[in-house]
Fold this sequence. Notes:
The protein is 25% helix and 22% strand. With 173 residues, the chain is α/β, with parallel strands linked by helices. The protein has a single domain, classed as Rossmann fold (3-Layer(aba) Sandwich).
Amino acid sequence: MAAGGKKRGYAFFILNVGDRENNDTYFTYRDGADNDLLYFQKTFLENGMGFEWINKGAELHRNVKVNKWNHLKGMTKTRKDERSQKGTKLNSKSCCLKCHIKSLDYSDCEYVLFAISSHGREIKELEIEFIDGMVSLSDFLDAFSDANCPTLKGIPRLLILEACRVASKTKGW
């Protein structure tokens, strides 16, 4: 607990490393990137600054696919319309990280931390490379907006981004 009885805060971490054994896939292996996870844990979690890590499950933080970030990515317009018309709610097993971020109550936190370690590129805006596609930085920022997370109003949000900013569609790292 931090001063005033509030938690230090919630932390989210995405680490896209790739697969050393299968380096011919879409995402090129990032040698040494696993160190980012170790430093993240040591610096920000319980023994460091005291943040609570929300997306601990490997499928939610390591080699993340676009649909694990946002379940609506890759859905056809028809499926999105059907889902909204039926009012279907996602259960916790099928919910994506973006929905989870939006569903949390942050009123008992001092800060919220979001860290990403991945490939990236910047053509019109910064995009983060996931294992199977790209996600714009604005999509991440939108997830943590006051409009999407009303309990974040007045709470500082920290973004740590470790990604290239190559200015072309060719891969660079």
